[in-house]
């Protein structure tokens, strides 16, 4: 059973507008962005402007701006009624009650649920139009981290066994289990701390959720959803690909 989760089954393609559907995770290297070159007042809501101003590091600002641009693009592309909106009329705000990042539209009662992830400057964003149980996670595969030691400290023993039984694949398996746990936590709105020690494969089965995963360059990506087989990823190579829709 766990062996299935280590296969590369999540589809990743290069972004093409005609291939975009509502079950798409957009991926982007945020380190391409020079934040100072953007008119943030035109692109971000007042709430978002306040948040990005509090971000101290350049990378944190890049990741914040990139994820919000991806989300706003998805809103305008997936909903014809909002295609005319300016980017700053679309605002992302974390809702403590639902533990979800919600998208609010100026002058509308429509609220979208969304999901974000980032690791070492590489970011992903997705809308959850159907409000299904859904989450995804990105994590850089770092062989420098003491992942076996971390697994023995935090993970279920069955997961530790899977990691240590294959020295060549131990790092990949550690991070695959990690992204599955993070994606499951987001899908079920549970704290990640409560999912570290349980067996993630058992948890997925008991929750009746499906998972798809893959590696892209040096990153591991997992999607967990009750309709996970519909999800795919699209890599945006340049933020200029979104320029026409977002108007910057």
Written account of the structure:
By secondary structure, the protein is α+β, with helices and mostly antiparallel strands. The chain has 9 helices and 10 strands. A 7-stranded mixed sheet has the order 1-10-2-6-5-4-3. The protein has a 3-stranded antiparallel sheet with strand order 7-9-8, with helices on one face. Strand 4 (100-105) and strand 5 form a beta hairpin. Helix 6 packs antiparallel against helix 7 (170-188). The protein starts with a helix and ends with a helix. The relative contact order is 0.20. The model has no long low-confidence stretch (mean pLDDT 93).
Shape: globular
The fraction of residues in strands falls at 25-35%
Largest sheet: 7 strands, mixed
* Spatial arrangement of strands, main beta sheet: 1-10-2-6-5-4-3
Overall pLDDT, averaged?
93
Helix fraction, binned, reads 25-40%
Can you tell me the residue ranges where pLDDT is under 50 for at least 5 consecutive residues? none
Helix and strand succession? HEEHHHEEEEEHHHHEEEH
Distance between the termini: 47 Å
Evaluate the radius of gyration: 18 Å
Structural class: alpha+beta
Number of helices: 9
- Give the number of DSSP strands: 10
């Amino acid at each position: 059973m766990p062996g299935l989760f280590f296969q590369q089954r999540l589809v990743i393609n290069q972004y093409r507008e005609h291939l975009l559907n509502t079950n798409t995770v957009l991926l982007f290297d945020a380190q391409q962005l020079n934040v100072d070159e953007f008119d943030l007042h035109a692109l971000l809501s007042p709430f978002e402007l306040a948040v990005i101003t509090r971000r101290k590091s350049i990378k944190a600002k890049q990741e914040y701006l990139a994820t919000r641009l991806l989300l706003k693009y998805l809103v305008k592309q997936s909903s014809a009624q909002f295609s005319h909106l300016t980017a700053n009329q679309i605002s992302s705000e974390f809702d403590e009650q639902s533990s979800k990042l919600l998208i609010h539209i100026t002058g509308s009662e429509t609220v979208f649920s969304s999901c974000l992830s980032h690791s070492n400057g590489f970011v992903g964003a997705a809308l959850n139009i159907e409000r299904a149980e859904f989450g995804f996670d990105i994590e850089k595969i770092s062989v420098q981290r003491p992942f076996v030691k971390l697994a023995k400290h935090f993970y279920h023993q069955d997961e530790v066994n899977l990691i240590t039984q294959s020295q060549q694949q131990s790092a990949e398996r550690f991070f695959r289990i990690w992204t599955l746990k993070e994606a499951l936590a987001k899908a079920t709105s549970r704290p990640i701390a409560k999912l570290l020690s349980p067996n993630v494969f058992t948890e997925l089965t008991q929750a009746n959720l499906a998972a798809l995963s893959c590696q892209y360059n040096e990153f591991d990506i997992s999607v967990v959803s009750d309709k996970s087989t519909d999800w795919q990823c699209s890599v945006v190579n340049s933020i200029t690909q979104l320029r026409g829709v977002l108007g910057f």
